[in-house]
Amino acid sequence: MGVSVVHIRVLVVDDHRIFAESLAAALAAEPDVDVAAAGSGPAALRCLERAAAEGRGYDVMLVDAELGILAPAGGRGATGPVAVPAQPAGGGGQADGISLVAGVRANRPSVRTVVLAEKDDPRRAALALQAGACGWVAKDCSLQRLLAVIRGVLRDETHLPPALLTGVLRELLADRKHRSESEQLVESLTPREREVLRCMVAGLGRKAVAERLFLSPHTVRTHMQNVLGKLGVHSTLAAVALARRAGVGPADPKLPREPGQALGDVVERGSQLA
C-alpha cells in the first residue's frame, strides 16, 4: 500500500511572464508541490476564490514586491488567468505586491504569503511583514532556499534574509514609536474634537460635520482649528494622516456629505478648511 504525498499548493503572482513561467516550472518539478501562476493582483484573487470554491485552496502565495508598479494597463502578461490592471483590495488605482498581501491576509488568512524582491529594502520588507507576509526572499535565491522558505512558513515561521534583519527591526521600532506619538496626540483631544477628527477622516467638510454633530459651521471650524493645533499640524490632510497612523477610524459612512463629495475625499482649499 503506497504512502500518499501531501501536496503543497503554491500560487506565483508576477507580471513578468518569463520569470513567472520559469519559477512555476521549477517548483512544479518537486513531487510534493502543485503550482499555478497569475499575472496580476485581480487574477490572483480570482485564482484564490476559484480554488477555495473547489475545496482545494492554495497554501502559499509568492508575490512580486513590485507587482503592477511598472506594468502598463493590462499588465505585462500572465500565465493562467489573463492579466488585468492590478487593483488594491479596496478597489481603485494601481496596487503593488504588498497591497495584495494585505488584501489576502484580511480575506484568506490561511494562505501564507512570501514576497519576492529584486533587491533588499528594509522599509518595504517591514511594510510587507506589517501587511501579513510571512517572508521576504530575493528573486535570485536558489530553488532550495525558496523551497525551504515555502515549507518553513507552513510551520508558522517568518523568513527574512539575515542582512535585512537589523534594518527591518529598526523600521518596525520606528513605526511603533511614530504610532505611539500619534496616539498620545489624539488622546489630548476632547471627546467632541475626536468626533470632529473622525468626521475629517471620513472626508466630511465643515458643513457636513455641522449637520452630523448639530453644530453651527462656525463652531465646527473652531473645533477643526483646535484639532490641528493640538495635533501640531497645519492642514486637514496632515491631520487625517496622523489620525490614521494612530488608528482613528472614519465616522459613520452613512453620514450626510456635501453635494458631489465622495466618502473619503478630504476637502481642503489652499490653507483654508472646507
Report on the architecture of this protein.
- The protein is an alpha/beta fold and about 270 residues long.
- The chain contains 10 helices and 7 strands.
- The protein has helices at about 15-30, 40-55, 95-105, 120-130, 145-155, 160-185, 190-200, 205-215, 215-230, 235-245, and strands spanning about 10-15, 35-40, 60-65, 110-115, 135-140, 270, 270-274.
- The protein has a 5-stranded parallel beta sheet with strand order 2-1-3-4-5, sandwiched between helices. A two-stranded antiparallel sheet has the order 6-7.
- Helix 4 links the parallel strand 4 and strand 5.
- The longest helix is centred in the middle third of the chain and has 26 residues, at about 160-185.
- The radius of gyration is 23 Å and the shape is elongated.
- Mean pLDDT is about 75; it is low at about 70-95 and about 255-274.
Helix/strand-derived category reads alpha/beta
How big is the Rg? 23 Å
Order of helices and strands: EHEHEHEHEHHHHHHEE
**β-sheet strand percentage:** 5-15%
Query: Which of globular, elongated, flat, extended, rod-shaped describes the shape?
Result: elongated
User: Helical proportion?
Assistant: 40-55%
C-alpha termini separation? 75 Å
Supply the number of helical segments. Answer: 10
Poorly predicted regions: 70-95, 255-274
The order of strands across the largest sheet is 2-1-3-4-5
The largest pleated sheet is described as: 5 strands, parallel
The total count of strands amounts to 7
Mean model confidence by pLDDT: 77
